[in-house]
Amino acid sequence: MKIKYFTFFSFTIISLSTNAQIDPSLLRRIPIDTTKTLLNMDAIYNRPALQAGKLPISLGGYVETNWQHVGTDGVSEGHQFQFRRLSIFIASSISKQIKFLSEIEFEPAEKEISVEYAAIDVTFHPLLNLRSGIIVNPIGAFNQNHDGPKWEFTDRPIAATQMLPVTWSNAGFGLYGKYYKKDWMFGYEFYLTGGFNNSIIENNQNKTFLPAAKEDAKRFEKSASGKPLVTGKIAVKNSNVGEIGLSYMGGIYNKFQEDGLVLDKKRRCDVFGIDFNTSIKKTKTNIISEWAWIFVDIPATYTQQFGNKQRGGFIDIVQPFFKHKISGWDNAVVNFACRLEYVDWNVGKFIQTKGNIGDDLWSVVPAVSFRPNSLTIFRLNYRIQKQRDLLGNPPANTAGFSIGISTYF
Question: Does 203 score more than 70 pLDDT?
Answer without folding.
Answer: yes
